[in-house]
Specification:
The complex is a heterodimer of chains A (about 270) and B (about 300). Chain A is built from 9 helices and 10 strands. Chain A has about 270 residues and is of the alpha/beta class. In chain A, the strands form 2 sheets. A 6-stranded mixed beta sheet of chain A has the order 6-7-8-3-9-10, with helices on both faces. Chain A has a 4-stranded antiparallel beta sheet with strand order 2-1-4-5, with helices on one face. In chain A, a hairpin with a 2-residue loop joins β4 and β5. In chain B, β2 and β3 form a beta hairpin. In chain B, the strands form 2 sheets. Chain B has a two-stranded antiparallel ribbon with strand order 1-4. The chains are: A alpha/beta (about 270), B mainly alpha (about 300). At the A-B interface, α2 and α3 of A face α7 and α8 of B.
Chain lengths: ~270, ~300
């Protein structure tokens, strides 16, 4: 389904702040699989997601989605196949447009924008049903500017928008990290339900060990721009939140060690 | 009375400019300086073609097209070469100054005695009326002035309906979203290069149209006539939207036209009150400054939070 091969990306190459964000990542996601990606800050987890989404061009490597090589595709072209939800709960919607207008735009994701009215009354019932699914009473706010809603409400709607046209691949980038705990629980519940119902191939980056333990079929821990741990099925079940936390502490210590070594070397040889 | 009719007519002609400014400033959320060059470009193109014997309607359409090309150029500089939007506009505007002189061949072109888009209606009115002056109550107005007012009104109605229709289409929705959240537009498969390009082309096309009409109305095109036009457009948009609000696209568009007319009336009143024409640009600039700064100064903390959220 999604095949990543030897993907490489270095930020600020040739400078003091050079970061090898992706260091030759090779990965294959099966159709209908739900993969959770974790990792410390700077481990490359979000970079991996953005590489697949097309936010930048990698230096090396291939990305194939559904058999098509999309490595050189522009971000907006990939959107025909990919649905996304960002960490920033305000990033997925246009505030001055109404809830209905936002949904209507999303329902044409990756399709030609036709010279016909965006809002058609016969679509209304479908959008109401999609919003009712969230369970926050948002179906009664179709005509409100979406900027009036809370971050949690907007993030839930962004998730619904990403799935209105079933995407071949759903990319979730720490999409509950900026929400209050209650909203985060609601959004993650909705996420798992939508993914299960539609059997969506999903890659979800998360900061939450609980989510990493509870969600998905497969767990990948990124470290230094590469998958460090990659487990699925029964093997994944063995990784509870406590054990993941322990792994995290180890990776973080490793990061610090690297940083201090670097300083030491820099001091000595600079 | 003639003064009032002439003021209203100019207000309507500049309303097409203001509707363009609404597209760039309000819809795309992009202050676009190109209009200072695209308005006189439209005027120069139309004037040169009329003098060369072309049909005034064709010449006016060419004025629109020329403005649109100027706007598309700014969009390419901004989107493809990643030049700051303001700088891209300044570059195109500056370049257009020379282009406008080339198009006209000199710094101004007189159109007195040439056919204009106002002529057909003026002829009709004169035939119906049986003379060149119409009595309205105690006053009389020239049929030519009335025809100019009516023709400009027709242009404004056509433009308003066209923009209203466009902004409500699927593409128009993407255009409006582009001004608010380009990241979202890309994630939904929209090409922001295209939406910004179309938006700026339309916006400057309308400035060009406005220039073409203005040249025919005042009887000449001038290389200097674009100076400060961005501020005139913004002033109309701000005044209009403050007055009627933005409950819907239709209401906003009507508000922008009202804003343009009111702005012209205020200018006429100020001039009558003895203000020097030379001071107008300073006063307009200060007005726009106050109109933009005041809401921010009043609700400082609140407004900042909103801006970040948006």
């Amino acid at each position: 389904m999604l095949e990543i091969e030897g993907l490489r990306k270095t930020f600020n190459p040739g400078t003091h702040e050079e970061v090898r964000a992706l260091d030759g990542v090779t990965l294959t996601l099966e159709r209908g699989s739900f993969t959770v990606v974790i990792g410390t800050n700077g481990s490359g987890k979000t970079t991996l997601l953005n590489a697949v989404a097309g936010s930048f061009r990698p230096e090396a490597g291939r990305i194939r989605l559904d058999g098509t090589d999309i490595t050189r595709w522009a971000e907006h072209s990939r959107a025909t196949m990919i649905g996304r939800v960002f960490q920033d709960p305000y990033a997925g919607t246009a505030p001055r447009l109404t809830v209905w207008e936002n949904l209507a735009l999303a329902s044409r994701r990756g399709l030609v924008r036709r010279p016909i009215p965006l809002l058609r009354s016969r679509d209304r019932a479908g959008f109401r049903a999609a919003l009712a699914r969230i369970g926050l009473g948002l179906e009664d706010r179709l005509d409100a500017p979406i900027g009036l809603l809370s971050g949690g409400q907007r993030q839930a709607i962004t998730l619904v928008m990403a799935c209105l046209r079933a995407p071949q691949l759903l990319l979730l980038d720490e999409h509950t990290a900026a929400l209050d705990p209650r909203s985060a629980r609601q959004v993650i519940l909705l996420t798992t339900e939508l993914i299960r119902e539609r059997n969506l191939t999903t890659m979800m980056v998360t900061h939450s060990m609980q989510q990493a333990a509870d969600c998905g079929h497969r767990l990948i821990a990124m470290h230094h721009g590469k998958p460090y741990l990659d487990v699925q099925g029964a093997a994944k079940a063995a990784w509870g939140p406590a054990r993941l936390q322990e792994l995290f502490s180890r990776m973080r210590r490793d990061d610090q060690m690297d940083a201090s070594t670097e300083r030491l070397l820099a001091d000595r040889y600079a | 009375m003639t003064l009032l009719v002439a003021t209203l007519a100019i207000g309507l002609v500049l309303a097409t400019l203001a509707l363009g400014s609404y597209l760039s400033f309000r819809v795309l959320n992009m202050p676009d300086v190109t209009v200072d060059g695209s308005l006189p470009l439209g005027a120069a193109t139309a004037a040169a073609m009329i003098v060369a014997g072309y049909d005034p309607f064709a010449a006016t359409a060419a004025g629109f097209l020329a403005g649109a090309i100027a706007g598309a150029t700014t969009a390419v500089l901004h989107m493809k070469l990643a030049i700051d939007a303001l700088l891209a506009g300044i570059l195109v505007m500056t370049g257009l100054y020379s282009v406008n002189l080339r198009v006209m061949g000199k710094s101004n072109v007189a159109l007195s005695g040439e056919p204009s888009v106002f002529a057909p209606l003026a002829g009709l009115l004169e035939r119906l009326n049986g003379g060149p002056r119409v009595a309205i109550g105690r006053w009389t107005v020239g049929t030519e002035d009335l025809a100019a007012l009516a023709t400009a009104g027709i242009f404004v109605v056509v433009v308003t309906v066209a923009i209203w229709w466009l902004l409500r289409t699927e593409f128009g929705g993407l255009l409006r979203a582009t001004g608010e959240n380009q990241r979202m537009v890309r994630a939904l498969g929209g090409n922001v290069g295209v939406t910004v390009g179309v938006g700026l082309a339309l916006s400057n096309g309308l400035a060009g149209l406005s220039g073409a009409l203005l040249a025919q109305m005042q009887g000449f095109a001038d290389a200097q006539m674009g100076i400060g036009m961005i501020v005139v457009g913004l002033a109309s948009v701000i005044m209009g939207l403050t007055l009627v609000g933005e409950a819907s696209i239709g209401i906003s568009l009507i508000g922008v036209t009202l804003g343009s007319i009111i702005f012209r009336l205020l200018v006429a009143l100020a001039l009558r009150a003895g203000l020097e024409a030379n001071d107008l640009k300073l006063i307009t600039a200060v007005f726009v400054l106050v109109a933009i700064a005041l809401p921010k100064l009043i609700g400082k903390g609140h407004a900042r939070g909103e801006a970040r959220r948006a």
